[in-house]
Amino acid sequence: METIEQQVRELFCWLCQTPHPSGEEAALRERIADRLRGLGLHPWADTRGNLVCDLPGREGAPLTAVQAHIDMVCAVGSPDYVPSRDPIRPIVRDGFLCTAGESSLGADCGAGAAVMLWLAEHPAPQRPPLRLLFTVDEEVGLGGARDLDPACVDGVRYLINTDGFHWGRIVIGSAGGVREHFTRALTHSNAPELPNGRAYRLKISGLRGGHSGFDIGKTRANALILLGELLRETRMESPFALIDLSGGTAFNAIPYEATADILTIAPAQDAIEQIWDKIYARIQKNDPDARLEIQDIDIPSRVWSGDTASGLLTVLGGFADGVYARHPSGVVSDSSNLGHIYYKDGMVCLDAMLRCMDAQAEQALQLSHRTVCAMCGFAGQIVSRYPAWPAQDNGTLQTLAAQCYLDATGQEAEVTVQHVGLEPSHLLAKNEQMECICVGMELLDCHSPQERWKLDTIEPFVEMIQRLLSRLSTAPQP
């Protein structure tokens, strides 16, 4: 007989068969709906694409929702991997589920979605009426939750969000977030004729990267910021023209790779390596696998204009990135992540993510970013924003969840607020009578090819959820 861990893992691998990066969840949503119909259930979707399915439960018990998002950040670790085409290929390694490094795993939040399917396939008499809520576009500004039809949470008294990354942590509030987008027209000029000129491709890789909410307080280096530092220092030793620069993958992922092509007036590899050695000495404690690859490339006929190149390098030097403030408890309060630089439609584009619990800190960071970018010719706009989830302390759901964790493990749960955007911030606006918590299993290095899911946290998590639902089935209606 299969264990709960095996059953949940198989459901997750089933989810992984269908590509589901943000904005491309429709095929997976339909597969989930078909599977639920096969159980005799009646799922339905709102106009935004969020999927809802009700499960029967004890009559008179409060309606309880269990919720996960079905999109993922697909961080690519192999040039042959295409997120919209290729499935995720999970493997088991050293007690974790992970990939071989070609992509991120998508356990954020596929792990929670797999547990929800397990609940649907394993009915229990001691449960309240359950509503499974599979949302979309969480990774791009909580879009599905923001645009959710209020009917999806109508009548729900308790909502259990399964987007937690740490087993044993019960989240009762979260930071707000702002996604920023900056652009500047990319202009070119003819490459100078340099008798001793050399063209190089500089690639910084091997950084740990990670989620810009959960991991930004761990002092992990940002590959784009490091590349900017390397190039500015190199320019002092050997002037160059910039041929290309790009890196990162998403607003909310700490960049683990970045690449620049440059044309120097003379051979400069030794000088570049010496500069990198100094940078690496500073970051190696937290990013020991960081490396710089230098490759000779053909000298191009065109390079970026001096104004464009200088503007971008100045932005990389002045852009506020990393932790801005912490709570006295040590939890990150306010932060910024420069997540992606790329070229599109004739424009150099920068994407950044702010996460703040303090409104004044959010305003200060926005002003800082707008100022340095405007000085360098970049125009900015707000792509999306979401509110903070004010802490809901000492509620029925929190209290019962903490007790169920204690019963399942013999240990006290950590009850806290979190430095990430969580969907309850929008869901509560649709139904202010709900109590919400966020819980999850142990996930590491999400939004990176090193993402992994600790398998021995699956069974106790499911046991805790089962205990919690049983307790809620006898909870009085308000």
TrEMBL record:
InterPro entries: Peptidase_M20, Peptidase_M20_dimer, Peptidase_M20C. Residues 205-289 form the Peptidase M20 dimerisation domain. It holds the Pfam family Peptidase_M20. GO terms for biological process: proteolysis. GO terms for molecular function: metallodipeptidase activity. This is Peptidase M20 dimerisation domain-containing protein. One of its GO terms (cellular component) is cytosol. PANTHER family: CYTOSOL NON-SPECIFIC DIPEPTIDASE.
